[in-house]
Design a protein that fits this description.
The complex is a heterodimer. Chain A is α/β, with parallel strands linked by helices. Chain A has a domain of 197 residues: Rossmann fold (3-Layer(aba) Sandwich). Helix content of chain A is 41%, strand content 11%. Chain A has eleven helices and eight strands. Chain A has a six-stranded parallel β-sheet with strand order 2-1-3-4-8-7, sandwiched between helices. In chain A, helix 2 runs parallel beside helix 8. The radius of gyration of chain A is 19 Å and the shape is globular. Chain A starts with 19 loop residues before the first helix and ends in a 15-residue tail after the last helix. The relative contact order of chain A is 0.19. Chain B folds into two domains: 180 residues, Thiamin diphosphate (ThDP)-binding fold, Pyr/PP domains (Rossmann fold, 3-Layer(aba) Sandwich); 138 residues, Rossmann fold, CATH 3.40.50. In chain B, 36% of the residues lie in helices and 18% in strands. Chain B has 14 helices and 14 strands. The longest helix of chain B is centred in the N-terminal third of the chain and has 15 residues. Chain B is globular. The chains are: A alpha/beta, B alpha/beta. At the A-B interface, loops of A face helix 3 and helix 12 of B. The complex binds thiamine diphosphate (TPP). Thiamine diphosphate (TPP) sits at the interface of chains A and B.
């Protein structure tokens, strides 16, 4: 094991001052995602969610911010770590939980599992489990938007690891060449599985600068500051809708739990407990909450109410999944072709 | 002889190869991480240094080309991927370059690289983490394709693969990593291209590879109690395939059941049925049979994988049918103590 690669922790306080309706929408979106992910984590060991599952706890700010900046009919695509994105885009929660439980009421009727989510009605066109795999597909959606002249935006999420794949460069280049309405969102959580950035990318290189050199506007921000994410995403989306072509946003953040599965794994040696604790102090939910309480935009009761509402919805979704039937085994042998 | 796991056997082979020959290097996503690719690469970086054992960018195609380039100048790279599915990004370098280099440049240089790919199964690995595409690789002239079953074969064949002068695709089934077996210490090699007659028998020849051999053994144990004697040929290498051993066995029994871990159409098992039918028509007592995966992507839900894979009970049923015998093959499944989607209680997902 190579020695550690301290992730870069943004300094300073979150940008406060967003209109309270937006800030509260962001906070609720994050709390809801957190409640879903925590519930999955706490129940995973019951061994009924029998598929690889990648949680976004700690990373909710980016999903919430970008999700709020998009319209329902905009497209979104994502990766193996997709729960937060799907939810922030308005994907059906009970159908997602049922999918993780392998039930016929799941969004893929049990064929896809946690790593393959879809909710076309919410514009969530799919998430897949091969790194970099959905980037060109989202660019293709962007091409279709341009051809059909519909003023939508196609947004794609991917991690820092995906920017190492050739297909990333190929896709971004084509989007830039054709000025396609694509919003690229890189969630830089500093690790690909257990591998820190420093064993994968040259020292000192910035992902957004690299992307910018491919011919599109690219910037970066603190992904744990949901308000800032929202502002940046909204501005980017406005530009894209005006026909200015694709944009690239890199957000730094941190995954709290293990790469795949429900546990904490700071003890196994690829990163330190201290690093995790430093990021935990910058919990995107707590930071926004404190900002709202601090200047009186929200009360404790309101926040408690949000948490209770979210948890009730999540409990309902788990109950739905639990009560749903499994698909008939014969369904495995259907649906290869339309 | 001491007993170690398949995963430890892989680790020993890597260690032995690197100890013997400083030109051997080993890289891949996570080879130096705390889990060490299911334990197979643990400790190698400490022993041999980070210039010879290193993590890599998520760039499968480029890193395969890098292996090819390094091998042209005397290095022997061993590349590892935690799933075969991830390696599909590298088909260009593998198929257009590695497989053809020696041939298309008139035999000047060969490409001595070894590519370890892990075949996923169970716990909802699903459509993109469970593909068994050995037939794709076997279809490409210029690639050797190795699929060991036992810990002993894993070590012996990996050492042979690393020191082979040609590109070798080395396929490890995830459900085998924990299987224990007697493994010789030190430099120990099993030749590529030699099948192994695991059990001799008289009534039916079962040809299998990798994890299917384990299911076949369970089936045979049951069949034996029911008075049926099978001969089991574990291919160990699916390309080049040891036709002599397969043919000799089928000549003896007159019956063939070919097993495959991949989907049926265009499978290695299909090729075996074809060649045996063409070459041994007059020795066959009946039409050869094949059991392979259905021609469908693997679904995720445990409800959908129920009955999806070929298990011992299916093999026993098929053999009994061939011989016109009535046996209660349901007993096999009834004796299984863990859920169908895990190889044993040691495996609780998620990966
Ligand atoms: C082509 C490919 N290579 C490797 C993998 C194994 N893998 C699964 S997730 C992952 C991490 C990718 O890191 P990143 O893109 O930064 O996303 P994160 O997990 O941090 O969200 C890897 C390497 C894969 N799924 N696909």
């Amino acid at each position: 094991m190579n020695q550690r690669n301290p992730s870069v922790i943004p300094a300073g306080l979150p940008s406060g001052g967003a209109p309270s309706s937006q800030a509260k929408a962001l906070l609720f979106s994050m709390k809801r995602i957190r409640a879903v992910e925590e519930t999955i984590a706490s129940r995973y060991n019951e061994q009924k969610m029998r598929c690889p599952t990648h949680l976004s706890i700690g990373q909710e700010g980016i999903a919430a911010g970008v999700g709020l900046a998009l319209n329902r009919d905009d497209f979104m695509m994502s990766t193996h770590r997709a729960h937060a994105h799907y939810l922030a885009k308005g994907g059906n929660l009970p159908a997602m939980i049922a999918e993780i439980y392998g039930k016929v009421t799941g969004c893929c009727r049990g064929k896809g599992g946690s790593m393959h989510l879809v909710d076309e009605e919410a514009g969530f066109m799919g998430s897949t489990a091969i790194v970099g795999n959905t980037i060109p597909v989202a660019v293709g959606l962007g091409l279709s938007i341009k051809l059909r002249n519909t003023n939508q935006v196609s947004c794609v999420f991917f991690g820092d690891g995906a920017t190492e794949e050739g297909v990333f460069y190929e896709s971004v280049s084509f989007a830039a060449l054709k000025k396609l309405p694509v919003l690229f969102i890189c969630e830089n959580n500093f690790y690909s599985v257990y591998s820190p950035l420093r064993v994968r990318q040259p020292e000192g290189r910035k992902i957004h600068q690299l992307a910018g050199s491919l011919g599109l506007p690219a910037s970066h921000g603190d992904g744990n500051d949901a308000v800032r994410v929202y502002d940046m995403a909204r501005r980017a989306v406005d530009g894209i809708r005006r026909g200015a072509g694709p944009q690239f946003l890199e957000f730094t953040t941190y995954r709290w739990r293990e790469h795949c599965g429900p546990n904490f794994d700071n003890d196994i040696g690829y990163r330190t407990e201290d690093e995790y604790l430093a990021w935990k102090k910058r919990d995107p939910i707590v930071m926004l909450q404190e900002s709202l309480l601090g200047d009186g935009r929200a009360t404790r009761e309101e926040l408690d109410g949000m948490a209770a509402t979210a948890q009730a919805e999540v409990d309902g979704a788990f109950a739905f999944a639990g009560q749903s039937p499994f698909p008939d085994p014969s369904e495995a042998y259907t649906g290869v072709f339309k | 002889m001491r007993s170690i796991s398949f995963a430890q056997a892989i680790n020993e082979a890597l260690s032995e190869a690197m100890r013997q020959d400083e030109r051997v290097i080993c890289y891949g996503l996570g080879v130096d991480d705390p889990k060490g690719v299911f334990g197979t690469t643990l400790g190698l970086q400490e022993k041999f240094g980070d210039h010879r054992v290193f993590d890599m960018p998520t760039a499968e195609n480029a890193m395969t080309g890098v292996a090819i380039g390094a091998s042209l100048n005397g290095i022997r790279p061993v590349m590892t991927h935690q799933r075969l599915d991830f390696f599909l990004l590298a088909m260009d370098q593998l198929v257009n370059n590695a497989a053809k280099w020696h041939y298309m440049f008139g035999g000047r240089r060969s490409v001595p690289i070894t590519i370890r790919l892990i075949l996923g199964r169970g716990w909802g690995q699903g459509p993109t983490h469970s593909q068994n595409l050995q037939a794709w690789f076997a279809h490409i002239p210029g690639l050797k394709v190795v699929m060991p079953t036992t810990a002993e074969d894993a070590k012996g064949l990996l050492l042979s693969s690393i020191f082979d002068e040609n590109p070798v695709v080395f396929l490890e089934h995830r459900w085998l990593h924990n299987v224990q077996g007697h493994v010789p210490e030190g430099d120990f090699r099993i030749p590529i291209g030699k099948a192994h007659v695991v059990r001799e028998g008289a009534d039916v020849t079962i040809v299998s590879m990798s994890y299917m051999t384990i299911e076949a053994l369970h089936a045979m144990e049951f069949l034996e109690k029911n008075g049926v004697s099978c001969e089991l040929v574990d291919l160990r290498t699916v390309s080049p395939l040891d036709w002599d051993t397969v043919f000799n066995s089928v000549k003896k029994t007159g019956r063939l059941l070919a097993l495959d871990t991949g989907s049926a159409t265009g499978s290695v098992a299909g090729e075996i049925v074809a060649r045996v039918s063409m070459g041994l028509w007059s020795s066959l007592k009946q039409a050869p049979r094949r059991l392979a995966m259905p021609d469908f992507p693997e679904p995720t839900s445990p409800a959908l994988t129920q009955g999806f894979h070929v298990r011992a009970e299916h093999i026993a049923r098929e053999v009994a049918e061939m011989l016109g015998k009535a046996i209660d093959h349901g007993q096999i499944a009834a004796q299984r103590k863990h859920p169908h989607d895990v190889p044993g209680n040691w495996f609780n997902g998620p990966f």
